[in-house]
Fold each of these.
Amino acid sequence: QKEVEQNSGPLSVPEGAIASLNCTYSDRGSQSFFWYRQYSGKSPELIMFIYSNGDKEDGRFTAQLNKASQYVSLLIRDSQPSDSATYLCAVNIIGDYKLSFGAGTTVTVRA
Amino acid sequence: DVKVTQSSRYLVKRTGEKVFLECVQDMDHENMFWYRQDPGLGLRLIYFSYDVKMKEKGDIPEGYSVSREKKERFSLILESASTNQTSMYLCASIDRGYGYTFGSGTRLTVV
């Protein structure tokens, strides 16, 4: 079983819609959760991190964490063509700086 | 601004060559990592280092070695390049828990 799994996509949404990305993880010791955005041919860049259960909002992005269900999600509101990218979910466990990554979900925002 | 610099964006090497991939960070971070990224497989950890002259194997260390003689520099070495090592290689560093900063990546082709 993979440590971090994401819905494989690709996910296509119209401009202005909400894009919803999901991620599950297997290690209950996971402590920190990160969402990275990666444009084609570029390296990943951090867009959100969350440590506590509940929602965390940053502009058009909302991360949601449910540790009991071992589930973290990312919502992109008012999607723009510039949001078209691959989104990577990453987790680490207590006391460890290493991150485990999901395979990513590719999002395409249609104008 | 935080910066991780990888020496080459694109490399083409021949099978059997010894290949050096260099990574330098200017943030005085102790923790540095090398990943490779392949379509459908996500990011996989090759080696990491938590301090100068310290190194630990990641999930896929076979065929690779590393060197960390100075805090700011973490080098990945392909002892004898093979075609299955054709990939995107990403270096990252982290301070204390706010996610990685990635370098721009090196796309290596082994022919």
Amino acid sequence: SQQGEEDPQALSIQEGENATMNCSYKTSINNLQWYRQNSGRGLVHLILIRSNEREKHSGRLRVTLDTSKKSSSLLITASRAADTASYFCATDYNTGNQFYFGTGTSLTVIP
Amino acid sequence: KAGVTQTPRYLIKTRGQQVTLSCSPISGHRSVSWYQQTPGQGLQFLFEYFSETQRNKGNFPGRFSGRQFSNSRSEMNVSTLELGDSALYLCASSFQAGRDLPNEQFFGPGTRLTVL
């Protein structure tokens, strides 16, 4: 399977703290994307990073990509209760839109 | 723009029956992908359609099929339902400006299928 793995599986932090989650994948990728999912609903796209990029920012989100280690990390700064959700990384290896999703990190932000 | 819509939102079927799920992509989007999400297997890619052609296919049995219409709307069909087919089925659309360009996927709310 080309499915990625995320670490940790679950994370619980206080509001205002930073949250970091990691994603590892198995083969060379074209792009890596991060998504958020609130309790069994559809996924919301957060950020896309190309294989030739090393870091990207969007608001309170910071994503890094290390292709030599086949890993990525998502940092959410100054977390809010509304950030409580599951976070998934998704990678694509070929042209088209066949994405492989990680196992997800469940983030709980305690007010 | 209206988002991706999926119908129905909830569905209950019995083993052996078949089911058809529908997805309407964002206006202008030509690529539609389908995913199955279960607690045990997570999110798994089913297939992708682009301009009415299946472009990519995941590792699912032939009971799972799909199609895309000229207006980019897509349907997926599952025949001879099994208990293990109970899942959240998610549809995603993207613009696909160019074959080698990265694409942001926009997901619908999903159809929750329960097989009894």
